[in-house]
Amino acid sequence: MTKKYIIGNLKMYGSISFYDTFFKKIREFSMHKSLDNIEIALCIPYPYLYLAQQILGNSGIYWGSQNVAKDNEGPFTGEVSAKMLKEFDSQFAIIGHSERNTAYCESDVNIAEKFLRIKEHNMRPIFCVGETLIEREAGMEKKVVQSQLETLVNHGKHIFNNSIIAYEPIWAIGSDMSASPEQAKSMCAFIKEFVEGEADKVNQLGKENKPIKVIYGGSVNEKNTLQLLSLDKVDGALIGRCSLSPDKFLQICEIAHQL
Ligand code: 13P
User: pLDDT tens digit string along 213-240?
Assistant: First the structure.
């Protein structure tokens, strides 16, 4: 059975009481549902990882961060390493999100280094790719996304094995203008083909070959989830604003569960 991934990107929102309530609600959900066909994760701000570990431990629900340092240790004020994230049993880390790329000028090489650190610590990277509106209007979306993926292709063997790529068109993030099902399907299929084809030429997927998952992000809500997740090329959703409402997020999980 192929699982659908429902991943919340909580960005810089919330408080101790918000996360306490959210984690307890989602833990409750996990106790009453079989999670055989869905994988649920919350990528949260660093200070709440300990709480996630305490409340969500052994629940079948996963958690993780929205960034990681490219180095393992050292005089890097403000950075948090993959090893530290792992101490809180994090299983996922988002990297390359367009909000970080814009605000903090992340370079492609930095992102590739972070991807490697996450994998070295047995966590799963959620690598975000996507084009701007201008690039889409110019018909360049595949070219742009391919060049973002190529950054990683040459960074070591088996790099994509067991990883998640999130197709997040920048114009759809926070905009109420989700990609159409056709656009999401076409781009997710393109990413899968590129990674499984091109990367395999240089043996990036490895022998055990746990295939990559390609999920969609950008204005996903409880109304468009069913349509987006019914697409066979879309392995799940990365959810921003709707993850700020535990009820809406759980509604989305329920829709995925019933697919
Ligand atoms: P929204 O769901 O708020 O559009 O955000 C998407 C996103 O950035 C997920 O990483």
Answer: 999 999 999 999 999 999 989 999 999 9
Is 177 touching ligand 1 by the criterion CB < 6 Å? no
How far apart, in Å, do the first and last CA atoms of the chain sit?
12
pLDDT of residue 79: 95
Amino acid at 60: G
Residue type, 190: F
Q: Mean per-residue pLDDT for 126-131?
A: 95
- Please give the residue range of the domain that contains residue 242: 4-258
Query: What angle in degrees, to the nearest 10, is found between the helix axes of 16-32 and 49-56?
Result: 30
For range 79-100, the mean pLDDT: 96
Question: What is the distance between the alpha carbons of residues 246 and 138, in angstroms, rounded to a whole number?
Answer: 38
Yes or no: say if 155 and 163 are a contact pair by the CB < 8 Å rule: no
Q: How far apart are CA 114 and CA 7, in angstroms?
A: 19
To the query of whether residue 97 is one of the catalytic residues in this protein, the response is: yes
- Ligand 1 and 246: CB distance under 6 A: no
Cα–Cα nearest to 4, from 192, 180, 179, 215: 215
The predicted model scores a pTM of 0.93
Domains held by the chain: number: 1
CB 238 less than 6 A from any atom of ligand 1:
yes
Lowest pLDDT segment from 1-10, 50-59, 68-77, 204-213: 204-213
- Per-residue pLDDT, averaged over 152-180, amounts to 86
At 72 the three-state DSSP class reads coil
Assign residue 53 the CATH number of its domain. Answer: 3.20.20.70
CA dihedral 129, 134, 137, 141 (to 10 degrees): -20
Residue 131 pLDDT: 95
